[in-house]
Amino acid sequence: MGADGVLISGCHVGDCHYVEGNIAAKKRFDFFKKILDEMGLGDRITFEHVSASEGIKWAEVITNFTNKIEKLGPTPVKDVGDLTDMDVDETVSKKHKIHEVLVSIARRVDYEPKKVMVFEPEEVMEGYGFPKRDPDKCIGCYACYSVCPEDVISIEDVENKRKYGTLHTECLVCKECEKACPQEAIEIVPGFELLSYMKQEPLWDLEVELQKCSVCGNHFSPITFGEELKKRLAEKKAVKTIDGLSLPFDPYTTCPTCKRTKLAQAIAEVAQPALATGRKS
After folding, report:
1. Cα–Cα distance between 10 and 49 in angstroms, integer?
2. Model pLDDT for residues 96-116, shown as the tens digit of each residue
3. CATH 3.30.70.3270 given to domain 118-211
4. Whole-prediction pTM value?
5. CB–CB of 35/29 below 8 Å?
6. pLDDT tens by residue, 75-96
7. 184-211 as b/e, with b when 16 or more CB fall inside 10 Å?
């Protein structure tokens, strides 16, 4: 809102009327300071533990902070008046409001995130997290994608690869994807990634190879998905049953479109002679 610097103060650890309120406040401060450090504003904010009985210390803190800010000069954040000037929608959630404020500040100091910046779990403010995938367990199915209520998970097929991405801004840490995964290959972990958060673009973090259709040559389902399907059928002793159907295509290496086409052709070959005989009679 136009301040040249911001000082936040809390009680000493273990001596707070709100028990751990000061600890939570300090963690949130450290989280935002790391973001503001990236924008070149980190020197303009500070956090101090001072008790109500430490008048002399409080005077020193105020004097030192004021002198520091005077040396830094006026805020480089341009054209900041009030929160409405910072494009904050009052109807959105706290998390989205924080996003809008940070984007507004970044725009006013000409900061453009260009590199991936991942925070460690212990550095992250409560409520922030994202799905972390185990590449050794993920079979590339759509389970996590289909249940996510906020479209956090993005899937994109490019040539012979299926890419999985995470839109960090939107994750509610609801763990629905974690519950839905049949391979226990995904879990929601505390975390934060600045580039994805600021740009509102997915961070692509996993690729799986796609099966090439033995008929048309197009890539479709992940190879690992087909392998897992065959494994589960074998466990249920159903592979021989499927092989015994004498299907006109390989069920594991044929895309859905070609399966339908081949099956329709096979039905037509059987049905047409029968229909022709019926018409003659």
Report:
1. 5
2. 788 888 888 898 899 998 888
3. yes
4. 0.73
5. no
6. 998 876 654 455 555 555 677 7
7. ebbebebbbbbebbbbeebbebbebebb
Structure tokens belonging to residue 194: 């600045």
Q: How far apart are CA 271 and CA 6, in angstroms?
A: 81
Question: What residue ranges do the domains of the chain occupy?
Answer: 6-108, 118-211, 213-280
Contact call for residues 117 and 38 (beta carbons, < 8 A): yes
Q: How far apart are CA 151 and CA 162, in angstroms?
A: 17
